[in-house]
Predict the 3D structure of the following.
Amino acid sequence: VVPDLTGQNATVANAKLIGLGLNVRLRGSSASMSGTGSSVTAQSVAAGTLVARGTVITLTFGDEADYIPND
């Protein structure tokens, strides 16, 4: 099951997906993906979706200012 990764940084999001046996594709500027102020702003598969091991999940990164929480 795909977790909700919005708001997570690249290191945490990548580790969560790899731990679930999923593959990761990163999108966004290299500065956004490598900085501590970057976070996942979108993911290609919705949280809660059941997918097969090895599925590629594309994560889009932006600065914290780009992230608007769902609460």
Remarks:
- Residues 10-19 form the longest helix (10 residues).
- The radius of gyration is 11 Å.
- Strands lie at 23-27, 38-43, 56-63.
